[in-house]
Amino acid sequence: MQGKGLGNKLTLEEAKKEIEKLREEIRYHEYKYYVEAQPEISDYEFDMLMKRLEELEAQFPQLITPDSPTQRVGEKPLEGFPTARHDPPMLSLENVYSYEEFLEFHNRVLKALPGEKVEYVVEMKIDGVSIAVQYENGVYSRAITRGDGFQGDVVTENIKTIRSLPLRIKEKRFVEVRGEVYMPKDAFERLNREREEKGEPLFANPRNATAGTIRLLDPREVARRHLDIFFYYIFIERDYPRATHWENLQLIKELGLKRNELVWFCRSPEDVLKIWDEWKDKREDLPYEVDGLVVKVNSIDQQKRLGATAKFPRWAIAFKFPAKQAVTQIVDIELNVGRTGAVTPVAILKPVQLAGTTVSRATLHNEEEIRRKDIRIGDWVVIEKGGDIIPKVVSVVKSRRTGKEKPFVMPRKCPVCGSELYRPPGEVIWRCPNAACPAKIRESILHFVSRNAMNIEHIGESLVDQLLKNGLIKDPADLYYLKKEDLMNLERMGPKSAQNVLDEIERSKSNDLWRLIHALGIRYVGEKTAKLLEEHFESLDDLMKADYNKLITIPEIGYKVADSIVHFFRDEHNLKIIEKLRKAGVNFRRLKDVEEGEKPLAGKTFVFTGELDSFTRSEASAIVESLGGKVSSSVSRKTDFVVVGKNPGSKYQKAIQLGVKTLNEEEFLQLLRESGYSI
């Protein structure tokens, strides 16, 4: 920690300089944490910065300013959502890190309540985002983030997506429950894998992922991330309904609201310490992240008499667990190739114990991250495990450098297959473009046969694994060269099953061109983009010849998509696969269009917003396309119809602004009937 200890008398000018430096550093880390969700230091390091600032401001109160980080409870409300005030305020908790500090808290409580017996309730401190949820007349009505403690963002629709949250309770009076929204570890790991495959920045831990999810403007995306919630406070008509916190926790459960079952009733500070000692090591066994215990005075009457400071209640404390950090040395840096070709540098470490496990690898995310943190092979580094399967490198211990450390140079060839790596403009992730790269092959085959690609039934994960294991296929094109005897030698594959697989493979040769384009696995080219490309190119060969400038003239094809297509068709491994598909007789041409008279919606462009009762978005789009219409993801003056379902997004407002015709669901169904579609 920077600065002189308080035992060394500072002059006013020295204190002023250190305070300003601390404030600047704290504001920077607050922004990295709350806004960008990319923290650069641990919670403990941040708390130490705040603690030092608080000490200096206490010694030099004349230097306190209204904009000091010590003068607010938490982050500012997010932009993009309406706000609402909290009554009572949602204050944060003061942190302690040792039994001695906890005893100081306990003694302060006893001093304020002379001669009274004090009991505590201990709960897990869930590492998530605080939320206030309101019910009116027994019905879920509103959810508000903590914000700055006095005012937060209304995120009702996003919190509504949490499946464990009841939308009705049996209490008809106005109820507000407060708790913590969190992302379970398995959901967090799945989300980060998906982001890594897409070349998107990874979330540092589940709490950052939760904060980032709650601020999304699309509740459907929130729902896909599988958040959960625990409640720990309840107010009825703005007051505690029962006399003790323990009893109020029971009421939360009685009303069907989710409460963490890891709660303890403690009659002494020694009881609290036993729980802390036990769980500081066992926390890794939990399916969600915790970073300590919350200790609360049980009596509501005592809580009210103890009161609160401007920032913290005097009757509760956060008893934090030791930071999950360790110091070790980077022995080497290796590259990991993901399913979509994303190449991620990984630090190979001297094995070290961290949070109950032996750690020998830590993610370095990307080349830019290594350069920013100046990480070198041979460096001693601080590593942290905050929910990731693979821990991350927090910082370099530069004072331990000997001069023998080696800067890392990102290779330009794939470490698995040797293909030339490329980095799309504006991105930080290097990628292997080779569809036949062994690191990518399994998933590329599964994608090739999937329903929205070549739609080859009877080929699933088990069969693909057997085919690869037995050397029968090395890329998707090899599927078209399989023989019946090849398949019959595999497990659970009789003559009839083998023939069914071969029949499906043969049938797929006559697929539409867009299915083949999608099946090839070109980055950024999904089903919709593949159909768009089919409209503009009569054959795969025409698409292969298209250059960057031609591709970006196509509506909805941006520079990223165009660049990805061009790189894909330059790679010799991909060209070999395509040639094998050609020789196997797979259709490379756009199938003959149905006569225009059979396409009543030909030339009409539709955009969908909101949820439909009659169809999913995908089903509705397929119907429009079967009638000759086109479905777009964005509204423009060229759009003919915007179909508006429940909870429409910004596309509806855009349609109104541009004067584009809107259809509600019934009007859309009527248009389909008039176009000859049977509903």
Principal-axes geometry comes out as globular
Domain count = 5
Structural class, please?
A: alpha+beta
Q: State the name of the first-level CATH class of the largest domain.
A: Alpha Beta
* Helix-residue proportion: 25-40%
* Regions with little confidence, pLDDT below 50 for 5+ residues: 1-7, 73-78, 593-597
Radius of gyration: 30 Å
Largest sheet: 6 strands, antiparallel
Full CATH superfamily name of the largest domain: DNA ligase/mRNA capping enzyme
Share in β-strands: 15-25%
| Cα end-to-end separation | 70 Å
Q: Fill in the CATH topology of the largest domain.
A: D-amino Acid Aminotransferase, Chain A, domain 1
- Mean of pLDDT: 86
Question: Which architecture of the largest domain would the CATH scheme give at its second level?
Answer: 2-Layer Sandwich
Plain-language structure description:
With 679 residues, the chain is α+β, with helices and mostly antiparallel strands. The chain has 5 domains: 12-71, Helix Hairpins (Orthogonal Bundle), CATH 1.10.287.610; 83-320, 2-Layer Sandwich (D-amino Acid Aminotransferase, Chain A, domain 1), CATH 3.30.470; 325-402, Beta Barrel (OB fold (Dihydrolipoamide Acetyltransferase, E2P)); 438-583, 5' to 3' exonuclease, C-terminal subdomain (DNA polymerase, domain 1), CATH 1.10.150; 596-674, 3-Layer(aba) Sandwich (Rossmann fold). The protein has 24 helices and 23 strands. The strands form 6 sheets. Strands 12, 13, 14, 16, 17 and 19 form a 6-stranded antiparallel β-sheet that branches. A 5-stranded mixed β-sheet has the order 2-11-10-3-9. It has a 4-stranded antiparallel β-sheet with strand order 5-4-7-8. Helix 1 (12-35) runs antiparallel to helix 2 and helix 16 (513-519) crosses helix 17 (527-536). The longest helix has 24 residues, at 12-35. The model is unreliable at 1-7, 73-78 and 593-597 (pLDDT under 50).
